[in-house]
Amino acid sequence: MTKPKKVVLAYSGGLDTSVIIPWLKENYGCEVIAMAGDIGQGEELEGLEKKALATGASKLYIKDLREEFVCGYLWKLVRAGAVYEGKYLLGTSIARPLLAKAQVEVALEEGADAVAHGCTGKGNDQVRFELTYQALAPQLGVIAPWREWEIRSREDALEYARRHNVPVSASAEKIYSRDRNIWHISHEGGVLEDPACGAPDDVWMLSNSARTAPEQPARVTIGFEKGCPVSLDGQKLGPVALLEKLNELGGRHGIGRIDLVENRFVGMKSRGAYETPGGTILYAAHAELEALCLDRATFAYKQHVALDYGQMVYSGFWFTPLREALDAFIESTQQVVTGEVALELYRGNIQVLSRRSPYSLYSTEIASFTMGESYNQKDAEGFIRLLGLPLRVRAALKAKAGK
Hints:
The chain is of the alpha/beta class and 403 residues long. It folds into two domains: 6-172, HUPs (Rossmann fold); 180-356, Argininosuccinate synthetase, chain A, domain 2 (Alpha-Beta Complex). Helices cover 42% and strands 19% of the residues. It contains 13 helices and 14 strands. It has helices at 15-28, 48-54, 66-80, 91-110, 125-136, 154-163, 239-252, 277-293, 296-315, 321-333, 364-367, 379-387, 389-402; strands spanning 6-10, 31-38, 59-64, 114-116, 141-143, 177-180, 185-188, 218-225, 228-232, 235-236, 257-263, 269-275, 339-346, 349-356. A five-stranded parallel sheet has the order 3-2-1-4-5, sandwiched between helices. It has a five-stranded antiparallel sheet with strand order 10-9-8-13-14. Strands 6-7-12-11 form a four-stranded antiparallel sheet, with no helix packed on it. Helix 1 (15-28) links the parallel strand 1 and strand 2 (31-38). 36% of the residues are buried.
């Protein structure tokens, strides 16, 4: 790559991207334009423009991506039922393609030569960002400072920030690496790097512990239309407002904490603590509605799709034909996933209270222990004999061989 004249940096204002601005100017002599996406990180965006300009950026774009994030990305996760390694609801993973897409749009608008990111050479995010660049604008150069510079630790980055008068909120005493959006917050680094050490109380930010959650449970009814959440307790809400309300409710009652040792896409294991209060509630409700509305074969196959979908999102394969094809399958399955699910939240636990849908496949007449005309129990005899035919043939062969 020839030396770029103008670079668009995916900017969060955190330690890594804060020091990258002066580093790019020092090592490439280029103009640096910062791009931040508002995906629900709240107060983290306050003062961001002043900070970016003070550290050397020529300008800062802040794009409001919240509604696009919820409708075009998060609701796809909910409808897919995608989970990585049985626990992780993909809060960081799902945000990266959207941020990289917005970054590419700014780069093309500004006539930039290259894009840059603050992902480390050990992490998954470098893959997620760069696969998006390749899918949407392969002509742009890519600068990944963590793969080039002499900084080898967050302590080194703090020292670089000190020398270049870059203000950062991280410190040697409290050095957690956090990523927050409207779906979740992740915590890594510090004492969490030792999987034998429990997550300290000062790690958690969005949720009460089960010990300090309210003594009285909360009840909430979530309405879905074609698999998408649309209402709480009968009140229609926009996607962003709905998720924010569920985050507050779930956090208050200790919902959505996980402590996970995961397999990174790049090959190593890592340990992180995640809080996804609203998302955890939505997954639980959506799963109950699908159990009511999907036939057995579709339900079983969709579980395989959910595993593949979660793996694809985690690994950064968002802008791919396969993801789009899986979305088409999921879209078809969700045409009947409409109805309401009532849940009780109590000290970190979710209890299902009721499920209702106009597309319910549950028939009281058939499922009841009371005999009815819709199901002839004598039919089960022939059904079982057909199922058991291979077993009877095998038993006969074994008996003959035994003689």
